[in-house]
Amino acid sequence: MSDNFDVLIEQYTADGGGKIVLDLGAGEGKYSLKLARLGFRVLAVDLDTERLEKLREQAKRQGFDIQTQQSDVRNFDLTKQQYDFIVAVNSLHFLEKSEALDVIRRLHGALRAQGKLLMSVHHQSGKLFEHYKSHNSMIEPGSFVISPDKVISFFTEDEIKAALKGMKIDYLGVEQFTDQSKNQNVIYLLARKIGN
């Protein structure tokens, strides 16, 4: 992530004191732990129970009480509670595009007024997208099968904007990211709910 995006994240999270965060696709808790350190009350959701166990162990060692829940983000009930802040970083692009866009649309209802969203997904450009496009079966535009039970999806800025109706986008940028020697373009987004 760029320095500008990191600064925006710091500004977004400056007022954590006791506010409730939902970390969707939390994995081992990079953002959950950071937000707990800033005073947020965190619910970390992930499908992988082993990763959630590692998160719980790290939280305990660091003295944080992070709630965890094993769930597929597609089926997680976003109507039970409203959140001050939702994090969905490096998780939604592992769903079929139509499923991910459905989750993104439902995030609006899970946020309190002025609630904030931090999100990242793969952009529909760059070497990683071209690799999957030329070597994998497409199941819907922008979504590819990478193994019998795994998919990867790529998005455009316009698709993300359309899914975020009722949200004010404070930052939407496409940045190149290198991971395991693969260059990929990633959409980074900061948005907030306007109105109720």
Protein traits:
single chain; 196 residues; alpha/beta; Rossmann fold; 7-stranded mixed beta sheet; 3-stranded antiparallel beta sheet; 6 helices; 10 strands; SAM-dependent_MTases_sf; transferase activity; transferase
How are the SSEs placed, and which strands pair?
Elements: H1 3-12, E1 20-24, H2 30-37, E2 41-46, H3 49-62, E3 67-70, E4 83-89, H4 97-110, E5 111-122, H5 126-135, E6 138-140, E7 143-147, E8 150-153, H6 157-163, E9 167-179, E10 182-193
Parallel strand pairs: 1-2, 1-4, 2-3, 4-5
Antiparallel strand pairs: 5-10, 6-7, 7-8, 9-10
Report on the architecture of this protein.
- By secondary structure, this protein is α/β, with parallel strands linked by helices.
- It has one domain (3-125, 156-193): Rossmann fold, CATH 3.40.50.
- The chain contains 6 helices and 10 strands; from the N terminus they run αβαβαββαβαβββαββ.
- A 7-stranded mixed sheet has the order 3-2-1-4-5-10-9.
- The mean pLDDT is 89.
- It comes from candidate division Kazan bacterium.
- Residues 21-115 form the Methyltransferase domain.
- It holds the Pfam family Methyltransf_25.
